[in-house]
Amino acid sequence: MAKLALLGGDPVRSDPYLPYNTIGEVEKARALEILDGGVLSGYVARGNHQFGGGPVVSELEDAFRSQFGVRHAVAFNSATSALHGCMMAIGIGPGDEVIVPPYTMSATAMAVMMCGAVPVFVDIEADMFCIDADQIASSITPRTRAVIAVNLFGLPADLIRIRGIAEAHGIILIEDNAQAPLATCSGQLTGTIGSLGVFSLNRHKAIQCGEGGVVVTDDDVYAERLQLCRNHGEVIPPDWGRDEPADIVGYNYRLPDLLATIAVPQVGRLRELIDERVRLAELLSGALAGVEVLSAPKLRPDCTHSYYLYPMLYRREVLGLSRDVFLAALKAEGVHAAQYVTPIYLLPIFQKHQRPSDPGFGRMFPGYDAECSYGRGTCPTVERVEDEEIIVTNICRSPNSDREIFEFVAAAVKIVDNADELRDSKGSA
Ligand SMILES: Cc1ncc(COP(=O)(O)O)c(C=O)c1O
Asked: Do the beta carbons of residue 181 and residue 204 sit within 8 Å?
């Protein structure tokens, strides 16, 4: 029996993975064309036809509109600024609460705080890791204005139910769809089920231009407010046909043409890129069926996944080894495996003050005096999942192939076969 790499043996994989790279000759040629022209960004902050940016930003927005079948797409320079733009578009401000999951990238909650509003964390589903729809209604208060559902790892949250809850309580559903382009829920594309849907084009995402974000919406007013806050909000452009002053704090959240042009051709390849992720993920799920210690990701009925990451639940009872020891052994075998992220409310900024009403926090949440806590134990499921149960891998994407999938399974099986020795050496902790 081969010796585990963690105990001094040879690893299953010794080569580094080839990087995921969606930048090809077309993207390079398009970027060069913009550089040659010398106009890297086309916005003018005062009202004229360039208020919405240069021609390539419009081309990217058109591509998103037709890909996602929506009335409006507004490009931003990141999904973080896009999320903030959504908060501005729906008028979130001090005293408001916005429900968010704790298991996501920090920007989901920070966008709420950028408006002086309070993020209220609702725990996740133990098996699908998205915000638990069952716990949303009881967290709604008279201050609640919106819920941000994150389609985590590429799996749609329970969006149809969440939309129903939001409608019943008169609050707005926003989808943070940074990780789930082209996932579907009841036949609808994620990002288009809430009133606003946010996409990311940062370098880790399925398609990328370094940094970037896009908001999609069918709401004309939100689309206008998104454009205003993106571009300084100094004026209402004359061609919108309304003679009124702009009434919004404006930022510079502008995506330049130079970056937009790199994203445009990738929108056309998104389907192909996601299909390959799904193919590799299904191969991995099939192969893991014989590996009791790891549960393949559960799919929500009537939904499809887009596998930004492939999440597994580690079952400690099978080998009597902790997740951390198993994870260390997997990593030592040279395959990609990791935990996800610290639940957001356990980040230092929340732990330092514990409650939004804490005087230290008060400068951020002026006048907020309601009960809301960020203490450890606020969302027990996410804490258990992150501390003891989850293992994610990013191998389900090109240029990886079947070989990388079977290697991952071989590494897991090798650990199972050597579990006694591992337990003797590392203990069960
Ligand atoms: C769920 C989620 N929301 C928001 C973001 C922020 O994206 P960006 O880096 O484009 O600001 C990310 C990025 O990792 C994300 O995964």
From this structure: no
Q: To the nearest whole percent, how much of the chain has pLDDT over 70?
A: 99
The predicted model scores a pTM of: 0.97
Q: Compute CA distances 204 → 6, 101, 158, 270, whole Å.
A: 29, 21, 24, 14
* Ligand 1 site, residue 191, Cβ cutoff 6 A: no
Give pLDDT, residue 32.
98
Determine phi and psi for 310, rounding to 5 degrees.
Answer: -110, 105
Does the beta carbon of 85 sit less than 6 angstroms from any atom of ligand 1?
A: no
pLDDT for 429? 61
Q: Which residues of 363-385 are buried (b: 16+ CB within 10 A; e: fewer)?
A: ebbeebeeebebeeebbebbbeb
| 233 Cα: distance to centroid of ligand 1 (angstroms) | 24
User: How far is residue 381 CA from its own chain's centroid?
Assistant: 19
pLDDT tens, position by position, 288-329: 999 999 999 999 999 999 999 999 999 999 999 999 999 999
Phi-psi category of 252—alpha, beta or left, where left has phi over 0 and alpha has psi -120 to 50? beta
For residue 201, give the ligand 1 atom closest to its CA: 10
Beta bridge partners of 294: 314
C-alpha of residue 176 to centroid of ligand 1, in Å:
8
Residue 205 appears among annotated catalytic residues: yes
Q: Is 150's C-beta closer than 6 angstroms to any atom of ligand 1? A: yes
Q: What is the DSSP letter of 144?
A: E
